Amino acid sequence: MGLMDNIKQLGDLKKMRDQAIEVQKRLAGIKITVEHKGVVVVMSADQKVISLSGDTDHQKVVEAVNEALKQSQKVAAEEMKGLMGGLGLPGM
Questions:
Q1: What number does CATH give the domain 3-82?
Q2: Given strand 39-44, what is the order of strands in its sheet?
Q3: In sequence order, what are the beta bridge partners of 32?
């Protein structure tokens, strides 16, 4: 492996890092709203709770947050498909 190969690998790593940062920014900008049993959860696709409102029953809040997490994971997986597909990684 020569110097040029090492330089190319560093360039590839920087490109992957830049793509990952771009995906993270996109995820932070996507808002998901879930209404579940009287609780409304607004969460970003990077899985940060933005707001909770409605019924204050602990179990209902937990269920609503878990549902919002599940939906945000689906959105994140879709966003990551583009990044992973471009990396040429086996099994991705």
A1: 3.30.1310.10
A2: 31-36, 39-44, 49-54
A3: 43
Q: What is the dihedral of CA 71, 77, 80, 85, to 10 degrees?
A: -150
Write down the pLDDT at residue 37. 93
How many C-beta atoms surround the C-beta of residue 34 within 10 A? 19
Rounded (10°) CA dihedral 8, 14, 15, 19: 160
pLDDT tens digits for 12-58?
Answer: 888 888 888 998 999 999 999 999 999 999 999 999 999 999 988 99
Domain boundaries, the chain: 3-82
Tokens encoding 23: 């995906």
> What's the full length of the chain, in residues?
92
